């Protein structure tokens, strides 16, 4: 990619910066930046730089748990994380000395949101170009297509809506449940957490038929990859995430954190000598797609978890080539069953109208295992069996049906997708979520009086 010396590229992680640097030619590397042979600087954020306001930061009286204050429904406000000040200062200085900025965040809502925040907090008000990082393979970055970053502003708006919706439902539901139970210690709850607990309850009651992998001709999404790795090698979802991230940053696989199983036609044509099956779903150029292998020759030794991830991806891809998948033993895994259930929310929705929707999954690709860990830490479920404890069943029993129905989660995720597509404004979304939270608190109040 031709770029003048005063070009600045901003991305998510040091590994992504190194991947971009290898493609463009590395001159120097430090703890804070990569500089290419043409003088382009590549900087990263080392994770999220912003956090949501706490209730007490909105209003001091909201610091305490009081029934009279519920529902708490402020507009979204965010502030820099204290530990991110050094990174922000470094990026702000870099932005002051550049004339061209390229957004090279991950090709999803969270990547768009994170790097947009870097640019905004850094004080840059000039034009920004977007480099879509579906792949960090050098062949895919040799002549990258840059588009105006403004074209993707709705993705960042949708991520803001998701974060604030999770905050509103979590804060209000947790406080109401804590007050109803007369607890001194807060009872955790949330838009994803509560639905995930309901899935665990349903799975322990209705044991699903064992599924070793995705059987239809499509690429893997993250949830199916995690389930496949559990079945094949017993690799935990957390380790699968780390291994997939490493393989992506090395240019070996395409972007692995996705809820889509479609084929990126450009990547497929560039890296495959055989056409894909005609019945494979194809994504648009700027959209997320399934996980695909980009190269079979590696310049480093693979770690065991990386090898498991690659074997699962290759086994699934073989269906796209009309080839039989390689035979492999399939381990029993209750956790894999749970991840497959999260990938097929419609199967568990109470409304039959939602039963056949396949494009909504519970939780985000990177955060599902963190939400599950919160459930264990709260004492809501047994880690080994994934069955809810008495404490978990009691907490779930206090929650109104709408808050634990996977169908409700699907409707909210559809609304977030509508913000991303531009068919619903973020203001309209916020009005809806405020109304829903108020109705949720009313339902809890009525159930408390009925008891």
What fraction of the residues are assigned to beta strands by DSSP?
5-15%
Unreliable sequence segments = 210-214
Quickly name the level 1 CATH class of the largest domain. Mainly Alpha
- Architecture (CATH level 2) name of the largest domain: Orthogonal Bundle
- The CATH topology of the largest domain corresponds to Topoisomerase I, domain 2
**Number of helical stretches of at least 4 residues:** 17
Approximately how much helix is present in the residues?
Answer: 40-55%
Averaged pLDDT, please? 90
- Class per helix and strand makeup: alpha/beta
Number of strands: 11
As a whole number of angstroms, the C-alpha radius of gyration is 23 Å
The CATH homologous superfamily of the largest domain is called: Topoisomerase I, domain 2
Structure description:
With 451 residues, the chain is an alpha/beta fold. The chain folds into three domains: 7-144, Rossmann fold; 156-209 and 334-450, Topoisomerase I, domain 2 (Orthogonal Bundle); 222-320, Topoisomerase I, domain 4. It is 47% helix and 8% strand. The chain contains 17 helices and eleven strands. The strands form three sheets. It has a seven-stranded mixed sheet with strand order 2-3-4-1-7-8-9, with helices on both faces. A two-stranded antiparallel sheet has the order 5-6. Strands 10-11 form a two-stranded parallel ribbon.
């Amino acid at each position: 990619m031709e770029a003048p010396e005063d070009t600045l590229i901003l991305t998510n992680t040091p590994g992504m910066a190194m991947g971009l640097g290898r493609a463009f030619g590395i001159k120097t590397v430090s703890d804070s930046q990569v500089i290419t042979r043409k003088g382009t600087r590549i900087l990263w954020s080392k994770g999220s730089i912003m956090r949501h306001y706490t209730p007490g930061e909105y209003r001091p009286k909201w610091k305490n748990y009081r029934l009279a204050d519920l529902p708490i429904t402020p507009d979204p406000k965010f502030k820099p994380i204290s530990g991110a000040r050094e990174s922000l200062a470094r990026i702000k200085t870099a932005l002051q000395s550049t004339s061209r900025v390229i957004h090279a965040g991950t090709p999803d809502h969270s990547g768009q949101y994170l790097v947009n925040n870097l640019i905004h907090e850094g004080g840059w008000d000039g034009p920004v170009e977007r480099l879509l990082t579906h792949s960090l393979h050098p062949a895919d970055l040799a002549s990258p297509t840059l588009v105006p970053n403004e074209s993707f502003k709705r993705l960042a708006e949708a991520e803001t809506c998701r974060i604030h919706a999770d905050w509103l439902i979590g804060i209000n539901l947790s406080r109401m449940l804590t007050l109803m139970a007369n607890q001194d210690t807060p009872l955790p709850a949330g838009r994803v957490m509560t639905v995930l607990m309901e899935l665990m309850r349903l799975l322990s009651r209705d044991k699903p038929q064992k599924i070793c992998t995705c059987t239809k001709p499509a690429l893997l999404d993250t949830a199916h990859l995690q389930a496949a790795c559990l079945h094949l090698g017993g690799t935990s979802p957390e380790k699968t995430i780390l291994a997939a991230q490493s393989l992506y940053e090395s240019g070996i696989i395409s972007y692995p954190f996705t809820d889509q199983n479609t084929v990126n036609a450009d990547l497929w044509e560039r890296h495959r000598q055989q056409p894909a099956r005609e019945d494979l779903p194809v994504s648009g150029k700027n959209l997320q797609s399934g996980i695909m292998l980009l190269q079979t020759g590696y310049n480093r030794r693979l770690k065991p978890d990386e090898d498991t991830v690659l074997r699962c991806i290759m086994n699934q891809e073989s269906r796209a080539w009309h080839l039989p998948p390689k035979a492999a033993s399939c381990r029993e895994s209750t956790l894999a069953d749970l991840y497959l259930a999260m990938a097929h929310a419609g199967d568990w929705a109470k409304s039959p109208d939602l039963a056949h929707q396949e494009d909504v999954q519970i939780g985000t690709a990177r955060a599902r295992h963190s939400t599950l860990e919160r459930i264990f830490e709260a004492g809501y479920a047994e880690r080994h069996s994934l069955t809810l404890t008495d404490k978990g069943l009691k907490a779930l029993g206090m929650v109104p049906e709408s808050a634990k129905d996977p169908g409700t989660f699907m409707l909210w995720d559809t609304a977030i997708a509508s913000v991303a597509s531009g068919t619903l404004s973020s203001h309209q979304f916020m009005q809806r979520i405020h109304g829903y939270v108020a109705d949720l608190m009313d339902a809890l109040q009525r159930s408390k009086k009925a008891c």
